[in-house]
């Protein structure tokens, strides 16, 4: 059995490029939302002639669509992900453009019939509304308020839940940008970590869970986490996810 130091070193060495979580297989599990985001965007992509994926990561989810529309574009802000996304989406004819998460989106007004985004760090609703064609829709799966708060609190002590990611705020901001919210769903999903290496890699990859996380800075809490998992078999948290769809009226 690997020691604490070996597990921490392993989790700290995993590459962070892309948005592929396959490394966690056998080491952590996360329940998936019932709505099936990849399937939804796959269905929608076959009914439109232009589509934009905002903050595509490595393009892994967008690459699952069965048919690419005539115009397919994606944005990404992190340089290592941009190279991965371009390779991933090249077979679909997708164009990947570097753009900051906070906007603006580097496209003319009314460019896309469908805009999608999975787990965006921030949603700039006025920009989403601007690039949508009249009658077009934005479909997004997002991180909800208090996601994985059990993990955050274990590492940092009890923390207040930031309402910035609440469904109420998302709906209000979409409507303020002139969009009509046509679907809004929320689910709390089981997340389980089976070794401290998985915790380390997760905290390095999902930066907002423990802002400023480093192995050295949180070594004492990682020791406590390792002891907890050794005693109980896993560490249990709950991710918060919501699906929102908003339409620009014709």
From TrEMBL:
GO BP annotation list: methylation
Pfam families attached to this UniProt entry: Methyltransf_11
Domain Methyltransferase type: 52-138
Keyword Transferase assigned: yes
Single annotated GO MF: methyltransferase activity
Keywords: Methyltransferase, Transferase
Highest rank taxon of the organism: Bacteria
Protein name: Class I SAM-dependent methyltransferase
Lineage, highest ranks first: Bacteria, Bacillati, Actinomycetota, Actinomycetes, Pseudonocardiales
């Amino acid at each position: 059995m690997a020691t604490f130091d070996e597990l921490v070193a392993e989790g700290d060495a995993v590459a962070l490029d892309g948005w592929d979580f396959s490394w966690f297989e056998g080491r952590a599990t996360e329940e998936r939302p019932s709505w099936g985001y990849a399937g939804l965007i796959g269905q929608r992509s076959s009914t439109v002639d232009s589509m934009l994926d905002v903050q595509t990561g490595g393009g892994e989810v967008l690459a699952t669509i069965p048919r690419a529309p005539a115009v397919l574009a994606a944005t990404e802000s992190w340089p290592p992900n941009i190279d991965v996304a371009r390779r991933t989406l090249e077979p679909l004819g997708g164009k990947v453009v570097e753009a900051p998460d906070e906007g603006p989106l580097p496209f003319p007004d009314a460019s896309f019939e469908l805009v999608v985004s999975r787990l965006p760090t921030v949603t700039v609703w006025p920009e989403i509304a601007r690039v949508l064609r009249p009658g077009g829709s934005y479909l997004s799966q997002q991180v909800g308020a208090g996601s994985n708060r059990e993990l955050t609190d274990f590492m940092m002590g009890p923390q207040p839940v930031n309402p910035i990611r609440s469904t109420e705020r998302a709906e209000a901001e979409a409507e303020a940008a002139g969009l009509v919210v046509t679907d809004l769903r929320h689910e709390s999903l089981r997340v389980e970590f089976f070794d401290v290496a998985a915790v380390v890699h997760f905290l390095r990859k999902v930066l907002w869970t423990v802002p400023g996380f480093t192995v050295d800075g949180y070594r004492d809490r990682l020791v406590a986490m390792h002891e907890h998992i050794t005693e109980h078999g896993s560490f249990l948290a709950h991710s918060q996810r919501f699906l929102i769809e908003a339409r620009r009226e014709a």
